Write a sequence for this structure.
């Protein structure tokens, strides 16, 4: 997975370079990759990717990406920036486009107990 | 429900196809009138029917150069409604980016349509039906396809006029990769890539052949398409009742030889017409709108005036 990381951090669907041109990272694959690699929080790749996610979260305009980015940053113990888009407003635009996965991620992102994901040390994140 | 019995017909038995080329210099023109008039000429059987528009929405595109432009999608939807369609849905299952809503927001589709929840179907997460493949061009024996695609009465492929770094060109046939659900086949539809892009294009289109195609060639993309290429204006919209004939015509407009595009050469035997003597040309002539597109080194053999490269 680290070999497939985009230059500068983050992941897309697995093509960091295409014909010599750097691929752009995307929120959902980056969040999934970081969650899968959450046992290595000190690695420079994780930190660079988290920094990228933290930087762009204020520009996210879709419910699915916002929910997963939120889960990911919280899992790593990072504070959400103050200018994170209003989730309720984003939901009202397109109502998740009827996507069941997006509805599920949203529930998980806003579940106060957060018992669904544990870190390597066994603690709930 | 669509009649798919006409999807596979040997070329010598298939009646001639019609393709229309219309000029449109930019996206601020009155596209609805031009599109409506052209669709009316084709006398499409859409009255009281459910129509699904399948644009090419591949990625975040704030500059509007890689995706079918929302102005074209909007004008097409309005035109089908004016022709009496009972319902006109829009559906897409992007291959590279899992976040369909983010793509829709980046192309500002909502600015044209308002809230999208009632008219847009994310084909990546739609319910699916197993469809056995008659063609077996790839090693796949079956495809799981969205129920929305299989359930509508009339399917319209609406690609952008683009070159493609793996398939040569991406037009109305390649655009149908986007009906294959990522929830079953992964991103970027990896199973299809492993089964062979050219062969998968044939299988998908044999299983769910579009009834009509409208290509956004107002601004297309040349070079390292479908995402990282260079914008290329051709100032045309291409329409047709045969996706193979439409794609062949698009190639000719782009200065490319359609019979040298692997999947088009094969599609020309069963799915539609490639040869000009079987394509009735309406509107502008190909020569009058011809705009040569640059292709990557591996596809130089597609260009007119170049020797063929077979690999």
């Amino acid at each position: 997975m680290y070999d497939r990381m985009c230059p500068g951090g983050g992941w897309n669907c697995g093509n960091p370079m295409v014909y010599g041109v750097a691929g752009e990272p995307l929120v959902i694959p980056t969040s999934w990759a970081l969650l899968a690699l959450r046992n290595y929080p000190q690695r420079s790749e994780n930190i660079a990717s988290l920094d990228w996610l933290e930087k762009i979260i204020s520009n996210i305009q879709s419910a699915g990406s916002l929910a997963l980015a939120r889960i990911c940053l919280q899992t790593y113990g990072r504070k959400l920036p103050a200018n994170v888009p209003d989730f309720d407003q984003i939901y009202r635009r397109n109502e998740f486009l009827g996507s069941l996965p997006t509805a599920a991620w949203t529930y998980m992102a806003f579940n106060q107990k957060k018992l669904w994901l544990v870190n390597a040390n066994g603690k709930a994140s | 429900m669509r009649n798919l019995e006409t999807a596979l017909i040997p070329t010598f038995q298939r009646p001639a196809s019609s393709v229309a080329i219309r000029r449109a210099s930019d996206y601020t023109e009155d596209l609805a009138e031009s599109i409506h008039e052209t669709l009316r000429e084709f006398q499409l059987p859409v009255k009281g029917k459910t129509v699904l528009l399948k644009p090419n929405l591949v990625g975040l595109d704030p500059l509007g150069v890689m995706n079918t432009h929302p102005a074209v999608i909007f004008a097409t939807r309005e035109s089908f409604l004016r022709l009496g369609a009972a319902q006109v849905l829009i559906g897409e299952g992007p291959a590279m980016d899992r976040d369909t809503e983010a793509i829709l927001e980046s192309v500002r589709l909502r600015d044209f349509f308002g809230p999208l929840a009632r008219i847009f179907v994310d084909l990546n997460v739609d319910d699916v039906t197993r469809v056995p493949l008659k063609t077996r061009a790839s090693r796949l024996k079956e495809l799981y396809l969205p129920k929305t695609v299989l359930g509508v009465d009339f399917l319209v492929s609406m690609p952008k006029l683009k070159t493609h770094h793996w398939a040569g060109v991406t037009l109305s046939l390649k655009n149908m990769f986007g009906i294959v659900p990522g929830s079953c086949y992964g991103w970027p539809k990896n199973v299809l890539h492993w089964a062979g892009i050219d062969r998968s294009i044939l299988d998908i289109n044999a299983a769910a052949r579009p009834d009509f195609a409208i290509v956004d060639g107002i601004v297309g993309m040349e070079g390292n398409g479908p995402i990282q290429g260079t914008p290329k204006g051709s100032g045309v919209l291409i329409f047709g009742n045969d996706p193979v004939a439409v794609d062949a015509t698009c190639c000719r407009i782009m200065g490319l030889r359609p019979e040298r595009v692997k999947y088009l050469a094969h599609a020309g035997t069963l799915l539609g017409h490639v040869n000009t003597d079987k394509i009735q040309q309406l509107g502008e002539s190909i020569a009058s709108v011809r705009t040569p597109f640059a292709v990557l080194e591996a596809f130089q053999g597609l260009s007119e005036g170049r020797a063929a490269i077979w690999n």
